[in-house]
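Q: what does this look like with iron/sulfur cluster bound?
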Amino acid sequence: MKEKDLNSLMKKLQFCEHCGFCRAVCPFLEAANMEESVGPRGRKTLFLSLFEGNVKPSPRLAQKFYMCGVCRACAVKCPQGIDISEVSVQARNAIIKANALNPFMKKVADSLVSGVKSGDIFGAAATKAKWAENINIPNSSDTVFFASCMDTSMAYGELLVDVLEKFGWAENTLMSLSGFAQKLGVIKFFDTFLGGKNDFYRKSLVNTVNLLNKLNVKFSYLGDEEPCCGAALHTYGLLDEFAEHAKKVYKAFKEKGVRRLIVHNPICGGVFKDEYPRYVDGWDIEVKHIVEIIADAIEKNGIRLRLPEHTKVVFHDPCYLARFMNIVEEPRIVLKAIENLELIEPPNNKRETKCCGGGGVELIYRDVSMRAAVNRVSELSIGDPDIISSCCPVCALMIKKGIKNLNLKAKYVDIVDLVANSLSPSS
Ligand code: SF4
Ligand code: SF4
């Protein structure tokens, strides 16, 4: 972090009024049984102590900063505009630089760096473009559909979380096995083995492409050459690596003449829109989410959308869509345009949405992350919806886990898939 930025963050923290508004909305403080040191106000105090030299970087201290979903719910509520997610990310960076992570978390860091470099966060770059094999996407536009390795490879993430759940604290073994599998090049075998899990995430990409074609949007897709946005490097606190990666990604985009990105995954969208301009001088690439494009088409042209029967749908605003990309009205424009769809607004919606329990915490502190997911899905189930909808692969994973845990009848359906299911043949 630049000295100037660190000083301004430290200065900002001096204005904390200790009002506790941030505590009231932190999903991980709630999930960690209100232990003050893993809440936003506690993190702020620890951050100041760390940078004033009163506490030393250690694995125990790391736990306090890594039990944060970088969701920015606290920032929306803070009267002083303090964003504790920034505090968490900067503290993580300082702890990494002091070499004070425990061996497992160090392994996660190494794996993220190599995954992102290879073009896929899960190290599955060899299969990342497989979803687009049988669809026709032209490759000659300065507007690029950015498919995101979280969407193309999230089935690996789901498998990882499933295995962790089943076999308890086996992370070290699992990380070693996964690294070994990648080295041996058996990822293609894994991809076939994942079957239905892959289809679940990748079908939203196919539907996005079909919708863009239907709406006459000219776009291309970079396929195997699509880089990873590097969001995980940023949230994990690997800021030097993120800065270097972001510059490389921008250079690659410019060489390919990219002027506009269309994303489905709001995490990539939020990082391109909100973090890249801070790390890449001259960043000038426009970023759009697919819901903005659909909402725009509905308002301008009126598309006929209809579900076959009356369906109650609750929409969960992903943190990155609502608070990083500032998109809250467009999903509602889209859902309200679907005949037979009854939209239910959950508690904590729009900019005040509550994190799904993901944010990277799911791979490190599973129990806390799962409690946060269950808390959020309990809120989403008020009104007894048939469908819980959103548009983020991490929210999808966590909401599905929450639904299973609570034994709900509701299904998780991505908003793009809902639109695709509602299109009449003539529209
Ligand atoms: S960013 Fe989210 S998880 Fe982190 S302290 Fe703020 S409210 Fe809590
Ligand atoms: S909401 Fe802001 S001012 Fe209030 S305790 Fe939290 S960080 Fe401090």
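Residues 16-22, 40-41, 44, 77-80, 82 surround iron/sulfur cluster (ligand 2) (CB under 6 Å). The longest strand covers residues 305-315.
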